[in-house]
Amino acid sequence: MKYTVLTLFPEIIDAFFASSIMAKAVSRGIVEYQPVNIRDFAQDKHHTCDDAPYGGGAGMLMLPEPLGLALESVGAAKKGDSHLFEAADTGRVIYLSPGGVPFTQELARELAQEEELILLCGRYEGIDQRIIDAYVDDEICVGDYVLSSGEVAALAVIDATYRLVDRVITPESLEEESFSGGLLEYPQYTRPEVYDTLRVPELLLSGHHENIRRWRLRKRVEKTLTLRPDLIRRGEALDLFDGETRKLIQELGGLSDEKPVESGGEKDERNTGD
Questions:
Q1: Where is the composition biased (Basic and acidic residues) (predicted)?
Q2: Residues 54 and 161 in one domain
Q3: What local confidence, expressed as pLDDT, does residue 89 receive?
């Protein structure tokens, strides 16, 4: 997997790829990255990358010329002109945007199958729409909150996807984590057995694997019902749950009749870097 990140602040990207599991994945050749400084493609001596938006309004907008040149430098093809790049595999171009689709674990799994992701980081009030129309394959939003940095959002996408790439993490570690099977993860404990009068649940010390499995499933259902009932509704709609899980949902009270509030209503403040 290759991550190409177009940014005004490449040092943020460099620091991330030099740390922890990611650094090991890079050193083993499983993951590759290329930070591209958008300022290198600016048209004037001051390396200007922004200007006031047409129509007025607060803030500045990133200019299309440096962005277009930066994208073309990494092989991104204009929509409708992909025949110009037939000799090369072009990466999937993603713009981190408040108007994008929500970033989910399912989308992370999909993106992890790509050979290259080209991540475009916005700043200020965002980027000129013509760049989105000409080059961007996906607009992605990492959450219903406001960020000043597209780099932060890009790193969230990178972190969620690279760990799903083959050989980065052992497959067993991914099997029962949050969102697998439509549920959140169960509580975890380690040494010591007693911490400040709080004990590890006795069942986890029993060595009885089947009882531990059932306890963990029950805790997953319990936690998801309490914190993310929307995931239970979604799991039921998509038929993700087996008979044992469905029975536990009912035993633990099931779902109320209240419907969840849909994200992204009339006021869309999902922001991943504008």
A1: 256-274
A2: yes
A3: 66
Give the rounded percent of residues in the chain with a pLDDT score beyond 90: 80
What residues are designated binding site? 122, 142-147
Q: Which domain holds residue 194?
A: 177-251
Question: DSSP string spanning 54-108?
Answer: TT--SS-EE-HHHHHHHHHHTTPPPTT-GGGGTTSPPPEEEEEEEEEEEP-HHHH
Q: Give the CATH number, domain containing residue 241.
A: 1.10.1270.20
Among 150, 172, 194, give the residue marking a domain's end: 172
- Examine the domain organization and report whether 185 and 119 are in the same domain: no
> Exposed (0-12), middle (13-18) or buried (19+): which is 117, by Cβ within 10 Å?
buried
Q: What is the pLDDT of residues 49-59, one digit of tens each?
A: 999 999 999 89
Residue 87 has pLDDT above 60, yes or no: no
Q: How far is CA 240 from CA 23, 67, 229, 236, in A?
A: 35, 42, 14, 6
Task: Find the CATH number of the domain harbouring 93.
Answer: 3.40.1280.10
**Residue 11 lies inside a defined structural domain of this protein:** yes
Q: pLDDT, tens digit, for every residue of 172-226?
A: 778 767 788 899 999 999 999 999 999 999 999 999 999 999 999 999 999 999 9
State how far the Cα of 205 lies from the Cα of 220, in Å rounded to an integer: 19
Enter the tokens of residue 135: 């080059």
Q: Which of 81, 205, 197, 71 is nearest to 131 (CA)?
A: 71
Question: Considering 172, 199, 218, which residue would you say is the last residue of a domain?
Answer: 172
Residues 168 and 69 in one domain: yes
